[in-house]
Design goal:
The protein is an alpha+beta fold. The protein has one helix and eleven strands; from the N terminus they run αβββββββββββ.
């Protein structure tokens, strides 16, 4: 190669080397980001046997939240719960206990989402029978004492069973709304001394 041709080729060789180096650095940065970057969904802290209590302005307990484990993820600021158990005890409202296989918390902790074998038990009283609600997903809005689901739900009391798809319950007003596919089974209350055996 003559001196003139070498002079022309040198810039091309340098440009090619720079392009190859740029591609290598780009791949290296991508691999490094995948390994240690913020895109990984790993918890930054874990709490075993969580127990959290909320109080109102008067110092009374409004709710307690317990879980076998709580995991917080910094990449999306989400919080997961394992085997959560929530109890709402607001004054002048029936006690409500909620359990599930797992759950998540909103960023401000105001809303709780429960998943898998969700059971809601509203405590009974002199004029209010105990109520049980079973579903697969439940959304709890703590400040408004509202629970809702868009899935199938079965609601049972002492002498009746309701089922439907899509439900909203307001614990402060005792209002229950079922959206669709509503079915009910009602049994008459037995009078004192009346036998449960229809043959007698």
């Amino acid at each position: 190669m003559t001196h003139g041709r070498l002079t022309v080729a040198m810039p091309l060789l340098l440009a090619g080397m720079l392009a190859a180096l740029t591609l290598w650095l780009d791949k290296f940065v991508q691999v490094t980001t995948d390994v240690v970057g913020p895109s990984r969904h790993d918890p930054d802290y874990i709490v075993d046997n969580l127990a959290h209590t909320r109080f109102n302005r008067q110092g009374s307990v409004e709710s307690t939240l317990a879980a076998a484990k709580m995991l917080h993820y910094p990449d999306d600021d989400s919080t997961d719960l394992v085997a959560p158990r929530m109890v709402q005890t607001k004054p002048n409202q029936p006690r409500v206990t909620l359990t599930a296989d797992r759950g998540t918390l909103s960023q401000d902790g105001e809303e709780v989402f429960l998943y898998g074998n969700v059971l809601v038990v509203r405590e009974g009283g002199p004029e209010l029978p105990e109520t049980r609600m079973r579903t697969s997903v439940m959304h709890v809005v703590q400040s408004h004492s509202v629970i809702r689901t868009h899935r199938d739900v079965v609601i049972s009391e002492e002498n009746r069973v309701l089922s439907g798809r899509g439900m909203e319950y307001h614990n402060d007003t005792k209002e229950l709304f079922l959206r669709e596919r509503v079915r009910g089974r009602f049994e008459p209350k037995k009078k004192d001394g009346q036998s449960s055996d229809p043959t007698k």
